[in-house]
Amino acid sequence: MGKRTHAIGEELKTQRTRPAEGPRVQGLSPRARFREAGICLLEVMIAMAAGAVVLSATIQTLHHFEERLRAQHRTIARQQDLRLGLAILEAEVRLAGTALLPSGNGLLKAERQEVEFTANLEGLSTTLIGQASPGERELRVENGSDWRRGKRVVVCAEERCEDGRLAAGGRQEALFLDYPLGQSFPTASPVVLCNQVRYYLGRDQWGHPSLMREVDQGANTLIGGVTTFQLVYLDGEGKPTADLSRITRVRIHVAVGKDQPVTKEIGLRTR
Predict the structure, then answer these.
(1) What is the chain's Cα-based Rg?
(2) Is 131 within the bounds of a domain?
(3) Is the pLDDT of residue 25 over 50?
(4) Domain for residue 65, yes or no?
(5) Residues with Cβ < 8 Å from 264, sequence gap 6 or more?
(6) Does position 238 have pLDDT exceeding 80, yes or no?
(7) Longest dimension (CA), the chain
(8) 2-3-6 Cα angle (round to 5)
């Protein structure tokens, strides 16, 4: 019993003389705390470097996906411009020769990268309701209310035609020419609008190769970024020809950017 009591007393004495662990750790410097926790500055720097590498790789991946997305958007925009431009080109080439001029199919120029023709793009037509005599500037017509000033008009009778420009906007039953007629035309002679249309490979305002559309001497870009544009003219047998009077179809090859060329074959309505 005495020995056991002595042992308990020694243990209590030891606990009173042992310093508390909590206050000792709290009083340590930051560097000592790292040592107590088992972390050193080198490990922290390695962890930070690894995090920087991961962050940099993530940013590069996001940038790569962003560039791919932008490239896809540019490709889609180019293809859409190409489809719309070709639709306009096809529709207007089909109208070549609809202006009643004696040139037949209306073609004025047929070159490898340029085509020029006359056409009635707006579909405006009327007829004379009275005879038109030489020297007259007023044409009495069935309906001229939608005809704009400066537009070119053609009057025909049998195998002869005469053209002029409107000096003023048309009225319900009258069109006014800027120059008097040089010959007479009987009642019921057809009168049509005549546009001069030109497609050619040129450059836009930034100097990029583009397919240009020019109507009545006013030009604008139809398809931008063109890398290929070629025209082939075919006769009634499908053979290439340079004779304007024999051309019945036009074959178009066009490409934008790095895309594959698109081929269209257009038949002239007047043939």
Answers:
(1) 42
(2) yes
(3) no
(4) no
(5) 86, 89, 90, 251, 252, 254
(6) yes
(7) 153
(8) 90
- Whose CA is closest to 175, among 124, 215, 226, 109? 124
| Neighbour-count burial of 64, counting CB atoms closer than 10 A to its CB (0-12 exposed, 13-18 middle, 19+ buried) | exposed
pLDDT score for 35: 55
For residue 119, the enclosing domain spans: 81-267
In the predicted structure, residue 159 carries a pLDDT above the cut 50 = yes
258 assigned to some structural domain: yes
Distance between CA atoms of residues 20 and 32, nearest Å: 17
Q: At CA 178, angle to CA 154 and CA 172, rounded to 5?
A: 70
Confidence of residue 221 (pLDDT cuts 50, 70, 90): very high
CB 201 within 8 A of CB 222: no
Q: In the 8-state DSSP scheme, what is residue 166? A: B
End-to-end CA distance of the chain: 132
- Give the Å distances, CA to CA, from 125 to 41, 147, 157, 158, 180: 90, 9, 14, 16, 20
Query: How many domains is the chain partitioned into structurally?
Result: 1
Give tens-digit pLDDT for 117-151. 999 999 999 999 999 999 999 999 999 988 999 99
DSSP category for residue 11:
H
Write out the two tokens for 196.
Answer: 């001069």
Which residues, 6+ apart, have CB-to-CB distance to 16 below 8 Å?
Answer: none
Which two structure tokens, joined as six digits, stand for 124?
Answer: 């405006």
Burial, 108: exposed, middle or buried (Cβ in 10 Å; 0-12, 13-18, 19+)? middle
> Can you give the pTM of this predicted structure?
0.72
- What pLDDT is recorded for position 260? 87
Over residues 46-76, the pLDDT tens digits come to 888 888 888 888 888 877 777 777 777 777 7
Return the bridge partners of 196, or none: 118
CB 215 within 8 A of CB 196: yes
Q: Are 174 and 140 in contact (CB under 8 A)?
A: yes
In-domain check, residue 94: yes
